[in-house]
Every structure is written in structure tokens, then in C-alpha cells.
Amino acid sequence: MLRFLSIRLLRAALTIGLVVTFAFIVLRMSGDPALLIMSADAPPEAVAAFRKAWGLDEPLWNQYLSYFGAILHGDLGQSMRDGRPAIQLVAERIPATLALTVPALIMKIGIGIPAGIFAALHRNSFLDRAVMITAVAGFTVPSFVLGLLLVLVFAVQLGWLPSGGQEGWRHAILPIITMGAGGAAVLARFTRSAMLEVLGQPYIRTASAKGVSWRAVVRHHALPNAAIPTVTIVGFMVGSLLAGAVVVESVFSWPGVGRLLVVAVANRDLAVVQCILLLVAATMVTANIVVDLLYGFLDPRLRSGVKA
Amino acid sequence: MAPLVSMRGLAVDFDGVPALRGLSLDIHPGEALGMVGESGCGKSVTWLAALGLLPAKARISGSVKLGGTELVGAPTATLEGVRGRKVAMIFQDPASALNPVHRVGKQVEEALRLHRGLRGGAARAEARRLFDQVGIPDAGRRLDAWPHELSGGQNQRVMIAMALAGQPELLVADEPTTALDVTIQAQILELLDAIRREQNMALVLISHDLGVVAETCDRVLVMYTGRVVEQAPARALFDAPAHPYACGLLAALPPLEGPRERLVAIPGQVPDPARMPPGCAFAPRCPQAGPDCDAGVPPSHVLEPGRVVACLRPAYAPRPREYAL
Q1: How far apart are CA B234 and CA A14, in angstroms?
Q2: Does A308 touch chain B (CB under 8 A)?
């Protein structure tokens, strides 16, 4: 177990390191922050001074080493825009993002998994088809389209809910639904196919043959097995709690991490972008490790694989 | 003696394609019956249909009576009261027939709770006794094993223990040894036979392996394309099969004595269930077939007491090896 964990942690650190490196290279190659942050007609001496102040005049290799060294000391750099620590800027935005993504995640799980189980248990019935058609619609419509549609109906036409901003819980409703719908649809489809796969297994017939009621067969024999593949998808959704809201936050002018990212990329605010990417990579990797541990909990076959 | 199970004209079709075409059969308490035939001949379907375990698209007709209770079309509650308690079933591949996420002991205890109301320590103690009975070594520790930690033979013993938990009057063993090594096969068959004798429980052994059935059963049903073509005491069938299909099956067995010879296969293939020949389904492959065989399905007739065959030209006298030549 300890060996398993340390291997996983080492791999996680490597993944994060790669993400950081990749982000660093792409950002430095894709435009000069000095020219973007200073205006285009700024005097060349001022631009040169800016470059020197942020170390942009150094060779790329040196910049990378000092950047990486700082990260290892917990220093994620300062925003080039307002000079505050990048981590502080990002941390301020995290609660706003979580206020959308956590309820959306609950919606995805709370609707998607029961809908998938229901569809599987009523396979090929009218209800199964209805659920699946809704699900296909749910994940083929891009979230910005769904978001705009909801704004058009509930904000513009009906005037029930605000179209954007962050003044209270009512402002969160449309963005949460926009985000939750697609995920619920994905989970519904995934849960359905996982359930169907499990319901076709010989041990389900064994359980029925020994006199277990169908309800108990589903609850006690099918669900624990179908949970194994479903956890993968849920884990992926948990991993994107921080970064999954980029589009929706932009559509609804919600001041979260996603919108900060969009603005920071546009401004080439390198430290902020890198800080967000680092956090995203870290949450994703953490979620993956948790999923792996959960596999072991759910599936005894994997547990003994870990021991070996 | 009144039969334990009595089937009359049991038929099953899937989306209009027949899988079982009218099977009639009596099983008496404590009897060992073998059902042989190729895959798809309807031997497993018979019992899955009787216990209501087929998918919803299967259409079942005819009658299956268990001690006076009709099972075909019976409400779910009736069937759940029969499954595992009156009639238990074990399956071909024990590794996939046991739930991978539950400990084997718990799976046996579930049956004990359902059928005998045992819980907690009492259920565990009884599960342990059953494990001992079916010959699982170190039973106390094995209760906590997961299916993937046990060998195929041990998993099949767990399945048998689980089947015995409900103290059934009939155990249906569907190809119980097919997925196992030959040496383990013999042990499992001996175990099934011993349990049947000790508990006076009836046993139906479904197999495509004539050797397996010969050792264990008193009476054998030979099935072909959803029908019983011959029904005979095991000894009589192996000494002198009457139906040409049964003759062909026996001729395909390697002889234990004498010089090594080429095995004789039955020519041709099992017909497509959706496009059956007009008369006897075996006629296109049958060396004895004549034009009258295509006129209609040959009726079953009694050759001698306990011996029924559905053939116009039963090959009664010739020994299997002569048939082969």
C-alpha cells in the first residue's frame, strides 16, 4: 500500500512538473507580455525596463530554472498587472468558482446516476429512450449555447432570474444548471452502460437463482459492481472543480477562477496563468489518486493487485 | 411416488425463434437425471425457463409443476420462494458466477438468511459447516476469501455450498465441471453424487459430456434442437443407443480399450433454429434417414419400459462401434 502510494505520488509530481513546464514554454513563446501590458506605443526604454524588472530579458533557460526553483519554495510569482502575489489573486476567486462547481457536481451526480440506473433497469422501454434522448441532447449542446439559451428564456423572456453577475444565490442558478446539465447527461449514459454490462454478468443470474429479490439483486449485487467504472467519470468531474467553469463563468460574468484565467491569458499575465494551471493540474492529479484508492476499496480484485 | 417436478409441453422462444419445442419430463425425489446435447439444444433454457430466469423477451408456454404449484407464468413472489429453496442451480463458470465484490462466505450467508432466516454468528457457523461439507479446506479462513482468490474447483464448491444453503429438493447443475481441470471435474462430480445420496436430493446434471453423465446419473435425456430425442436409463443408453443422434454422440467418444482409432464425427451441422427441416430435425445428418423422416416430426414412442425414443428407425441393436463403421 505504502509502495503504491509513493509510486502514485511520484507520478503525480511528475505530471504536475510536466504541466508547469509545458505551460511555461507555450506562454513564453506565444507573445511578449511587456508589449501587451505596456501599451504598444510605450517608449522602448520603458519596455526594456519592464522586461528587466520581470526577468524577461534573461535567456529562456535561466527564466525556467529560476521559475521552477521559486515554485519549489512555494513562490508562484507576482501578477504583472497589479504586482500582488499570483496565488493570492487566484485564491480570492476560488470560493466563487466552487460556489458554482460544487452544486453543479451535486446536480450531475444526483441526476445523472439515478437516471442512468433507471434507464438500464427499463432497458429499451419508452422511458429508457426518453432518458437517453435527453442525455444525448444534454451533452451535445455546448455549454455556452445552453447558457445563452437559458439566459434568453429565464432572464430575457420570463425575467425570473438574473442573466449574470454575482450578487446572490439567484445569480448562481442558471450557471449551475448550465454546468450540471452536460455532466449529468454524460454520467447518465455512462451509468446506464455500466449497469447494463453488470446486469448481463453470470453472478447476477446466480443471485436471482438463489432466490434474492430483484430489488436486492440490483442494490446488493449490481450497483456495487457498476460503481467501479462510474467512479472514474465522477473522479474526472471532481478533478475539474476548479477549472471546469471557464466558459460558463465567461457567459454569466461570474468572477471566478475561470474568468481570471481568460483575462490573464489575454494579458499574458504569466504568473497568474501558470498559477492557475498548476492548481488545475494538482486538483486533477489528486482526484486521480483518490479514484485509484477508491477502486481498491470498491474492487477487491484490484486491492490484491496492489499488494502483489 | 408423485414426481417432484413435472413438465408438460414446455416451450420457449426468443423473438419468435424457438429454443425449446415442447419438453415433457418428470423428476422424482432423489433421482439423478442427466441432460445431454450440444450447446443450444435447450438443456439450460429448460431450467432457466422453469425458474423464470430468462430475459423478458423470452416467451414461455407449457407447464412446469413443482409439488402442485404451477411455475410458468407464476408471480415473482412464487418464483422467488422456489429459487434456491426448492430448486437450486449451479452454473458452468464458477469464477464469473460468484459476485467479485462480495466475500464468498457472505454470498453463502445471504442464501442462509433468505431461506433459513439465519443471521450473524449462526449464519457464519452454518456457512462454515457447509464449506466443510463440500470439502473446502481451512473453511473458517476461506469464508473471508474473495472469489478471485480461490481456484475454479474451490469456487464451484462455494457455489455448491450456496446451493445447499436453502436445503433444496432439487439441484440443477448446469455444466458444473466444464470450466474445470479433469481431475477437479471428477472430484466435483463425486461431491454432487455424495450430497445427493446423503440428502436424498434430486439432481439434474446438464452436460455436453456423455462421460460425465454416465458416471453420475440414473436416467439420461438426449436433446437435439429443443426436443428430447431419447430418454433412457443411463446403462441402457450407453450399451445400446436407439436414436441415431445418440448413436452418433457415443461413436464420437474415444474407446477406452482396443487399438487407437479415428473418432467418428456426426456429419453436417445443427440446423439454424429459425430454419428447421420440416420433419425430424436430425434427418439431414442422419445415416438412417428416409423420405418419411421429412414428412413430420417423429412422435415419441416407448421402446421398452423407461425407454422413449423419437425416431422412425431407431438403431436399437447395433453397438456404437459397429454404427461407426
Answers
A1: 68
A2: no
